[in-house]
Amino acid sequence: MSSKPPAPAPLTPADLDLSALEYMPLHVERMKRSVAWIKAKRNPEIGFYLINLWSAAYMQKPAASLPDDDDLLCDAAMCEPRRWPKVKDAIMRGFILCADGRWYHRFVAEIAHDALEKRIKWRKKKQGQRDAAGGDNGEKRPPVHPHVPGDTE
Question: Cα-flanking dihedrals φ and ψ of residue 148, to 5°?
């Protein structure tokens, strides 16, 4: 009797929240080379759902993840519920179900990690500029925290 291998660990930290960022980078050339996108060329409806699902995952907490719930996935994809069973496999290509019970997309997770690194560098740079300018004039600034990049500075 074979047992199912354990689900992998989540691909992003549980508290990674990028929802305050106004955009998600879209690596167009890499996307165009992906199997999912090549299949979407034959069925443009799939491309619409893919973009919606990828961007919804990016804005979730934790970033790059989606809940394991068909109604919520269908809604995030902006798919008609009657179509979901027919297109789900194509749309969920590249997502993996992790140990926390959420679906993660490897490439969206990679983009999320990149955004986090850039945000941390930006915040440290801004703090250095404030320090060089003579301090923060008594203003309280959020600490540089690795999983809370969503300030509005």
Answer: -130, 75
